[in-house]
Design goal:
Aminopeptidase, 5-stranded antiparallel sheet, 5 helices, 30% helix, 28% strand, binds coenzyme A, EC 2.3.1.-, Acyl_CoA_acyltransferase, GNAT family N-acetyltransferase, acyltransferase activity
């Protein structure tokens, strides 16, 4: 496996990871049987693709900001921080994925920890996360970051809350 010399950090999207982003997302989309057409557009104009994703934008009807988890030239995953949950809690404050080549190395767990620090900085004391009950890996990521169960949303997804003050900011 590739040894990362710089600890990965959540940061705004950057053109620095162009090749790694495109190949990582392509591997992930193919593996998950998802549409890959969007990658052709992204590859054609990566600068524009990145510019469209930087900063707070209205998405899912709420102010949201996308972050990429990267180490030097390596892109590992994406995470969105919504400043409030979408209507009816159909999605929480946070959404994320780690691309397939980097699975099962603790990256999602660390990525969510860093997101709680960002959320705390935004004045969010409690983060809502929603997850399908059969998504064991994501449930584990949330529970490892202190997620406490609180029923389900109208779509039947599990709701969990993370107290942002309780998650260590170091690391
Ligand atoms: C869920 C996801 C983000 C986990 O990413 P990851 O970087 O592999 O997660 P981590 O390495 O931090 O692992 C977290 C825990 O889940 C476990 N885990 C991860 N993948 C697993 C798998 N396929 N099967 C069983 N356990 C798994 C790990 O062992 C770890 O638990 P442990 O500390 O008790 O050993 C990744 O699988 C993914 O992107 N999935 C698709 C998108 C998605 O589901 N997003 C979340 C929507 S709520």
């Amino acid at each position: 496996m590739i040894a990362l010399t710089t600890p990965p950090r959540l940061a705004p999207p950057t053109t620095r990871v162009r090749v790694s982003y495109l190949t990582g997302e392509q591997a992930d989309s193919v593996h998950r049987g998802r549409d890959t057409d969007w990658l052709a557009d992204a590859a054609r104009d990566f600068d524009g693709f990145v510019a469209d994703r930087v900063g707070v934008r209205e998405r899912w009807g709420v102010p949201s900001e996308v972050f990429w988890f990267t180490s030097d030239e390596h892109y590992i995953g994406s995470l969105v921080v919504r400043h409030e949950p979408p209507e009816d809690d159909l999605g929480g404050h946070i959404g994320y994925h780690v691309v397939r080549p980097w699975h099962r190395r603790g990256h999602a767990t660390e990525m969510l920890r860093q997101a709680t620090v960002i959320a705390r900085g935004l004045g969010i004391d409690r983060l809502l996360l929603t997850v399908e009950e059969d998504n064991g890996p994501s449930l584990r990521v949330i529970e490892k970051n202190g997620g406490v169960h609180d029923g389900r949303n109208p779509d039947g997804q599990l709701r969990l809350w993370i107290d942002t003050a309780s998650v260590p900011s170091g690391g």
